[in-house]
């Protein structure tokens, strides 16, 4: 909210004023407000009510109990303080209905151990209470009601006979005082000082921001309150989604490169797998492949339940990038996982000749260099590399975007045709008419003809039904001393089109239009923009699938080909030769895939040619950590994987800046997982069951209740725990795993378990993510009630990974109803998304994922769960704005820029 009226002096208060500047709020109140981070007029006016009370008319005092809280008004006729159990106190205030009649019964309000209440309530006062009436003996009581003492002041009309706002509790500020302040402020600010920052699609009738703010505090009806709230929630969500959409746009218009090889390597990998990929895996691999092949950077989230086979998908992505000649970073949240990934990758990929290295804080090693990739197997990226050889066009874009010495008149030039402007132009054929190879050569030659006379041509590609060109018009009359005029885009296009149309028709023996009237053109703004477009054009035939990966496409041209042409006679040959350029160079002893932990972020691991970053288990990484790896230029493609399914609304916000691919299908060969909650007293029966499973050759995880590895681990206690289990499971072999065991040793323990030398692993939650031993089909979790649902689901995901029927036993000694309701969710479903929804229901989003990690502003009024539909609408609106106008340049979008800049604290590169 900002002052829309720019005139500095008005009678009215600007929302940006601080509360001190108002000069009528006493100092102690200012300090109390500051504790709530309320400093300005706007802060106070957006300190929204928590709820409202209908005080238009108070009901009669109830004579029965009810589960619905009621709001009552009455006079205090008696107070008393009773002690019980030594130091405990109950304060009671008995209320009498105002218009008491013969049938009215007083109501007793009770507060336990709240000293301040007894100081506030006195006989003779009138108070309003809000709470649930309960029958206690013969009396109707309210325990711990919210209350407000009615001061007999002249502000009665603010607090009563209306729908009254109730604010979040504030120490040192009573409801009445807060309400009076808000009321007065609202009377002092003018409507025009609030700007309504909602697109039309989200507006509900004539509701403005000013109207909504007034109505949310002091609504005239419940309907008005509801539509005010909707407006404010939408505004809040819309602002958030604009921020997300701009982040996303920001990322997508950054300079990136295509990092996608032809796929032969991946195909070989696929053939070596002992299973078929699921449909869902194929689907997401195709989505990723499309992103890798595109010039803009990929920002994709790969979501899939535990065991759905994300690793294979990640490997597919890595192989495509490796094949294109790029390096890949694969980051895991823990040492164990990094090592496990390293082993899996080595097992699977070294036979294919891929060179892999491990870089963690504890261990650094790499497999031997392999000859295969020293060769050049990369036709698809050949041109790119050639472009990297120094032929890349580069212009320095001065702020004035002019070249010193050029004389021209601004006025003569339409704004889209600036002097020395560089354009990316696409011309399509009329009705998608196909151009024969001969026709394509004619078009190519015509464009080349004017190179270095009317323009400088940086790159051109003549596709079967369209042409992409990147060029810079030249001045027409360099020699003269008159004002410089440039070849205009319109002129150039007209002459190129009419010339080539005539020639093409003649060559093909046809008549009729060749080209579409419109030309799609784009003005190039920066070096990186230029490079991006350049690459795009050079890759187009391969990206569009017009040419096969290992095939030549002769109608792509850059000035470098011109140099070659002068050496070899035909342009065809020239084009061919460019395709034989070698792959991007990673020297043969450099690893192609580097696996690591966060260490990859902070240590000086150098990548010579980083093309793809895969981040496993994203929720362990914050947004800023992710940014750290990905802000390099040109931006690598980023694939983040999470096994923590999250409710859709949260995906829209927390991962809103990412494209989402979901693996929604489990591999078919999976045995069922049976989950059972058992009381700890049933341990003997459980043990018998465990032994039958071990005897059948299965392996077992026992998770013992050390919730957090950072919780100080008592090594002695762990050892005692272990001894206990060794006895219980004798003669089967057990081993102990926890966070304080040194990594190399941990690794060996895992390895022995993987090989089946150990039958049972007694572990803390270090086992939590990613560990993959298909023969381990039984898991016992002690004190299960101490874990969150999502975490239990994660743990459970360690079993059920092979064809065996699997069992997850949740031992609990909790009597609490809540705990068993929670655990029952796991008995009911093995679907991670359902578990996530239930978890959200039970705990709220804060626990599910650090919302702070998302880097998004906290919500003041909206509720992610209850207002999911509004979030969906806000998101759609924001996305459609950025789709049409990614840099927010159009006049009607100017007002929205502020949303992004203000929220972020600084400007975006795309919106600046
Ligand atoms: P997650 O999604 O939890 O990371 P993984 O990628 O670790 O799952 O895969 C779990 C197990 O399933 C691994 O042993 C993997 O080899 C196997 N797997 C992956 N895809 C398939 C498939 N399509 N069919 C059968 N098994 C598969
Ligand atoms: Mg995994």
Total strands: 28
- Radius of gyration equals 35 Å
Terminal residue distance: 20 Å
Strand percentage:
15-25%
Q: Mind describing the biggest β-sheet? A: 8 strands, mixed
Shape label: flat
With strands numbered from the N-terminus, the spatial order across the biggest sheet is: 13-12-19-11-20-21-10-22
Number of helices: 30
Give the uncertain stretches in residue-range form: 1-11, 367-392, 396-416, 563-585, 845-853, 905-912
Helix-strand category: alpha/beta
- The overall average pLDDT, rounded, is 78
- List all distinct small molecules, including ions and cofactors, that are bound in this structure: adenosine-5'-diphosphate, magnesium ion
Give helix % range.
Answer: 25-40%
Task: Describe the structure in your own words.
There is one protein chain. The model is unreliable at 1-11, 367-392, 396-416, 563-585, 845-853 and 905-912 (pLDDT under 50). Strand 2 and strand 3 (88-97) form a beta hairpin. This protein starts with 18 loop residues before the first helix and ends in an 8-residue tail after the last helix. The chain has 912 residues and is α/β, with parallel strands linked by helices. It contains 30 helices and 28 strands. The strands form 5 sheets. An 8-stranded mixed sheet has the order 13-12-19-11-20-21-10-22, with helices on both faces. A 7-stranded mixed sheet has the order 6-7-4-3-2-5-8. A 6-stranded parallel sheet has the order 23-28-27-24-26-25, with helices on both faces. Helix 8 crosses helix 29 (868-884) and helix 17 crosses helix 18. 37% of the residues lie in helices and 18% in strands.
């Amino acid at each position: 909210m900002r002052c829309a009226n720019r005139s500095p002096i008005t009678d009215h208060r600007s929302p940006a004023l601080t509360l001190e500047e108002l000069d009528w709020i006493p100092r102690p109140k200012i300090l109390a407000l500051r504790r709530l981070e309320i400093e300005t007029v706007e802060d106070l006016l957006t300190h929204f009510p928590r709820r409202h009370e209908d005080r238009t008319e108070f009901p009669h005092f109830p004579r029965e109990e009810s589960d619905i809280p009621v709001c009552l008004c009455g006079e205090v006729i008696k107070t008393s303080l009773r002690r019980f159990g030594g130091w405990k106190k109950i304060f009671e205030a008995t209320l009498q209905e105002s218009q008491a009649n013969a049938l009215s019964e007083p109501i007793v309000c009770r507060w336990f151990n709240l000293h301040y209440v007894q100081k506030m309530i006195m006989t003779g006062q009138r108070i309003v209470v809000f709470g649930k009436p309960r029958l206690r003996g013969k009396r109707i009581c309210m325990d711990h009601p919210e209350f407000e003492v009615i001061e007999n002041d002249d502000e009665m009309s603010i607090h009563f006979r209306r729908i009254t706002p109730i604010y979040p509790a504030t120490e040192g500020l009573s409801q009445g005082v807060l309400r009076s302040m808000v009321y007065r402020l609202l009377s002092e600010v003018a409507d025009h000082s609030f700007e309504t920052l909602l697109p039309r699609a989200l507006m509900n009738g004539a509701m403005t921001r000013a109207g909504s703010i007034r109505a949310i505090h002091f609504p005239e009806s419940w309907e008005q309150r509801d539509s005010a709230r909707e407006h404010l929630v939408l505004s809040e969500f819309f602002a958030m989604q604009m921020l997300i959409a701009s982040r996303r746009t920001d990322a997508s218009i950054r300079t990136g490169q295509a990092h996608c090889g032809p796929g032969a390597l991946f195909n070989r990998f696929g053939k070596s797998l002992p299973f078929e990929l699921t449909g869902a895996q194929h689907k997401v691999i195709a989505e990723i492949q499309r992103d890798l092949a595109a010039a803009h950077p990929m920002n994709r989230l790969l979501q899939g339940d535990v065991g759905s086979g994300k690793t294979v998908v990640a490997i597919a992505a890595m192989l495509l990038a490796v094949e294109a000649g790029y390096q890949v970073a694969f980051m895991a949240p823990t040492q164990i996982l990094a090592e496990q990934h390293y082993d899996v990758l080595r097992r699977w990929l070294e036979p294919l000749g891929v060179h892999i290295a491990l870089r963690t804080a504890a261990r650094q090693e790499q497999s031997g260099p392999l000859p295969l990739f020293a060769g050049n197997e990369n036709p698809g990226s050949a041109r790119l590399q050639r472009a990297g050889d120094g032929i890349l066009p580069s212009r320095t874009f001065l702020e004035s975007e002019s070249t010193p010495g050029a004389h021209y008149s601004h006025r003569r030039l339409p704004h889209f045709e600036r002097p020395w402007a560089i354009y990316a132009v696409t011309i399509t054929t009329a009705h998608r008419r196909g151009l024969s190879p001969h026709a394509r050569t004619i078009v190519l030659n015509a464009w080349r003809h004017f190179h270095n006379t009317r323009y400088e041509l940086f790159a051109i590609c003549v596709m079967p039904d369209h042409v992409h060109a990147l060029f810079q018009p030249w001045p027409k009359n360099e020699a003269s001393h008159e004002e410089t005029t440039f070849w205009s885009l319109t002129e150039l296009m007209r002459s190129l089109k009419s010339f080539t149309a005539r020639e093409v028709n003649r060559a093909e023996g046809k008549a009729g239009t060749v080209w579409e009237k419109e030309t799609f053109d784009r003005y190039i703004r920066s070096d990186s923009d230029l490079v991006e477009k350049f690459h795009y054009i050079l890759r187009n035939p391969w990206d569009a699938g017009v040419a096969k990966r290992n095939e030549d496409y002769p109608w792509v041209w850059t000035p470098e080909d011109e140099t070659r042409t002068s050496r070899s006679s035909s342009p065809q040959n020239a084009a061919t030769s460019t395709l034989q350029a070698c792959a991007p160079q990673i020297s043969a002893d450099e690893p192609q895939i580097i696996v690591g932990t966060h260490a990859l972020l902070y240590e000086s691991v150098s990548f010579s040619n980083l093309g793809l970053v895969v981040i496993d288990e994203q929720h362990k990484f914050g947004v800023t950590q992710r940014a750290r790896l990905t802000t390099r230029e040109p931006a690598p493609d980023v694939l983040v994987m999470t096994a923590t399914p999250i409710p859709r609304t949260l995906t829209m916000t927390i991962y809103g800046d990412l494209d989402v691919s979901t693996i929604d299908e489990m591999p078919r060969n999976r045995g069922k997982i049976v989950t059972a909650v058992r009381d700890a007293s049933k341990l003997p029966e459980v043990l018998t069951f465990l032994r039958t499973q071990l005897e059948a050759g299965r392996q077992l995880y026992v998770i013992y209740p050390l919730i957090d590895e950072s919780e100080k681990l008592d090594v002695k206690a762990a050892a005692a725990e272990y001894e206990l289990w060794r006895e219980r499971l004798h003669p089967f072999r057990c081993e102990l795993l926890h966070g304080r065991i040194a990594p190399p040793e941990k690794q060996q323990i895992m390895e022995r378990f993987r090989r089946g030398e150990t039958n049972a692993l007694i572990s803390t939650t270090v086992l939590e993510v990613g560990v993959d031993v298909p023969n381990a089909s039984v898991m016992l979790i002690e004190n299960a009630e101490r874990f969150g649902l999502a975490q239990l689901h994660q743990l459970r995901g360690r079993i059920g990974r092979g064809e065996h029927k699997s069992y997850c036993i949740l031992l609990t000694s909790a009597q609490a109803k809540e705990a068993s309701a929670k655990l029952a969710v796991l008995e009911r479903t093995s679907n991670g998304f359902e578990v996530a929804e239930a978890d959200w229901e039970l705990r709220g989003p804060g626990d599910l994922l650090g919302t702070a990690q998302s880097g998004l502003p906290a919500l003041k009024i909206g509720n992610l769960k209850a207002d999911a539909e509004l979030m969906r609408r806000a998101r759609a609106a924001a996305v459609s704005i950025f789709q049409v106008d990614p840099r927010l340049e159009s006049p009607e979008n100017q007002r929205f820029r502020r949303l992004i800049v203000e929220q972020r604290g600084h400007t975006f590169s795309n919106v600046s």
